[in-house]
Amino acid sequence: MNVAPLGLVAAPLAASVPAQRAQASSGQLLTACRLCWENDGRLVAIWGSDERDRRRGFLLRVVLEDREGLTLLEHTLPDDRSRYPDLSPIFSAANRMQRAIYDLLGIAAESDDQRAWLWMPSHATNAFPLRRDFNGDSTEPHPDDYAFVRVDGEGVHEIPVGPVHAGIIEPGHFRFQVVGEKVLRLEERLGYTHKGVEKRFEAMSIDDGAKLVGRISGDSTVAYAWAYAEAVERCADFVPPARARWIRALCLERERLANHLGDIGAIGNDAGFAFGLAQFSRLREDVLRMNQRAFGHRLMMDAVVPGGLARDLEFEHVHAMHDEADRIARQVVRLREIYDEHAGVQDRFRNAGRATPALAREMGLVGLAGRASGQAHDIRYDFPSAPYDLLDVRIAIQSAGDVWARVAVRFDEALESSRLIGVITAALLDPATMGPVHAAGPSLPADRLALGYVEGWRGPVLVAVEIGEDNKLRRCRPQDPSWTNWPVVEHATIGNIVPDFPLINKSFNLSYSGQDL
């Protein structure tokens, strides 16, 4: 986004994609957001920081993305009585982010929706955890009286689901307004897994921060760890060894492959196709067991660290992964034929939970769900960093926006990840890629801010890292793609029947913990 016409003075920002940083007044912030929207850009993240120890009051940070890269806008609030512009009329996903900022920091937007977002009835309404003088004492517990929006009319009924569910999944409350079994409205309430992750980052060492960030959303540990590592490395103007970058890409594609295999089977099971669950669970288990042998952890947790990798790969494991990728691809192709020819599966998948391209564009749907609704965005393709600049990533794209399209994108991406794993493992066997997988970077300068941006299997993961004194973290803001995608689930469910909701919800498979820090 060209900020010059807005009167903003921009400076380069250390980030894994082209990025700039600028201070913005209220009017400039609104103008920049509108310009971004009009040029097919999107909102990536909003968060706040307590800067009173620096005599700056509070700071609102807004990250926007367009074809040119990322723009970080910073808006200063002198005190907690000040208000910042409501961005939700431009970017609907801003609503929940703004409400979460108030719950954690106590600064509010000029919005009509002032409902709490985080479920914290045991917390005081006058205590804000992300303030630097927060001491954890709860002096004013408040009741849980969340005001769900209701639909009135003859024959309209309300069905509350959750927050505790029958399966072993994270808690979320879904309130349905229905006529018969047809859904007229769905409203979500999340926030039940809040555990103070962002507060925990404060004053944490870089190495401890790497361990914590990899545990934000367990199915995306590689994406988060890589984004965090990139941000730390950018703060130090440090580039990790080439072999480490190749293995990071290998880990990311194996994470993508494992999750897509698991989801295709689970979505089939929700459509009554237990055979699909059995077959794809078997393939996923093969991938996870290979991860265990090669990296010492089924999910590859703690493999990616600032400076490179925690450990190198044995040649036997590289050979095994190369052969495994080809074997899995051949089986996925055959299983896809079975899915496509199964009348019962297609009957449940087709036209269920549609998010049209227009809706996806309006609400900023990202990741695999966005690509299933015609949004052809993928960081690996749009802003390729090493080694993706050498891999010629092929974007999987569909336009129907229903359960079938989201499954089709998963099939395509599973096959593409298998191909990429084959290319990467072949490169790792080349003597030209031999060398160290970790190097100690220089000392980190204080007051440095950088962004890491990685295309995880679910969608783009952003991690903003700000360095404090003595190589400690001052602020770390992880941003999961689920923040922007959860509201779309509400719209995609309207007009469907209640029994189809588990299928629709699973086809998005969003993270609860990832957006509840």
What can you tell me about this protein's structure?
The chain starts with 9 loop residues before the first strand and ends in a 9-residue tail after the last helix. It is 39% helix and 17% strand. Helix 4 (206-213) runs antiparallel to helix 5 and helix 6 (242-270) runs antiparallel to helix 13 (403-428). By secondary structure, it is α+β, with helices and mostly antiparallel strands. It folds into 2 domains: 4-109, Beta Polymerase, domain 2 (2-Layer Sandwich); 197-515, Cytochrome-c3 Hydrogenase, chain B.
Short synopsis of the structure:
Helix content is 39%, strand content 17%.
Instruction: Provide the low-confidence segments as ranges.
Output: none
**Share of helical residues:** 25-40%
Described by the principal axes of the CA atoms, the overall outline is: globular
The main sheet comes to: 5 strands, mixed
Mean pLDDT: 93
> How does CATH name the architecture of the largest domain?
Orthogonal Bundle
Radius of gyration: 23 Å
Tell me how many strands there are. 16
Kindly give the count of domains: 2
Instruction: Please work out how many helical segments DSSP would assign.
Output: 15
**Distance separating the two termini:** 29 Å
> Roughly what fraction of the amino acids lie in strands?
15-25%
Give, in spatial order, the strands making up the sheet with the most strands: 1-3-6-5-4
The chain-level structural class is: alpha+beta
CATH superfamily of the largest domain: Cytochrome-c3 Hydrogenase, chain B
Look up the CATH topology of the largest domain: Cytochrome-c3 Hydrogenase, chain B
